[in-house]
Structure formats: structure tokens, C-alpha cells
Amino acid sequence: MPExxxxxxxxxxxxxxxxxxxxxxxxxxxxxxxxxxPALRVxxxxxxxxxxxxxxxxxxxxxxxxxxxxxxxxxPTGLSPDEQTDALRELANVICGNLLPRLFGEEAEFSxxxxxxxxxxxxxxxxxxxxDCRLPLESGACRLRLFLEGEPPAxxxxxxxxxxxx
Length: 166
Fold this sequence. Notes:
The chain has 166 residues and is α+β, with helices and mostly antiparallel strands.
């Protein structure tokens, strides 16, 4: 998978996590988080010049912190599973909305579907996996997977090489 694409996804996710949820990336992925299954995974599909989906998954340790910070709650222990799911769905929506213009240019128009929570058995999205990256967080990990129909983009500047904006 193209390293430039994975770096671009990680950069957008890092910026979004910090600005939207006050969740910060760590220098290294803790060994326990690297092998752990995510507590929750959501997928947001998109259509436009390219079709595909972005999956965002958070480890169990990071999910309550994300939801509490996004909802402005001091104690994450009182948050319901639905509130935690909604927070991750909103995070995935914002990451996807920030990522697509960086990959395909500011002029490209996309329709982004409502993010959906996934069960563990729902493994594959439509399209080919173009990128799979893990972002270490102070309290766990975030995994991002991009699925695209057709060939994967090369990363920043893709739109200019394909005759789009940017």
C-alpha cells in the first residue's frame, strides 16, 4: 500500500482527533493496543469522482475518552454505548470530509453517506483496500482503512495529476 497515502490519512486523522475531540497521538503504538481488536468500528461510504468507504476503529481504552471530550462530559463512565457510537460515527464523518479534498482536490464533489457501526463479522467494504494505518493515541489506538473502487490514489497532489483541482 502506498506509504504516502497512509501518511496523508494519518495526518488528517491526527488533526481531526486533536481539533474535534482533544485526543492526541502518541509517539509509539502500545504493544497491547497494536494487537487488540477495536472496541468499535464505523464505516462511512462516499460517492463522487471516486467511490469507496473509510473505516475508523478505536480501541476500547480510547472510545470513552473520545466520546466524553466530544460531548463535553467530565466523567466518561456515565456515557452510554449509543453515545460512544455516535461520537465515533461523527469522528469518521469529519475525517472522511477532511480527507477527500486532500486526496482528490478541493473542486471534487462527493456525497458522504451516514456512518454506520459495524459488527466484527462485517469485515469487507466495497472496493479494494487502498490503505490501512494505525495511529497510536495516548489512551489506545485508532485504525483507519480506506477502500476505493479502482486504483488507489498516490496521495497529496493526486487531483492535479488527474486533471482535477488542487
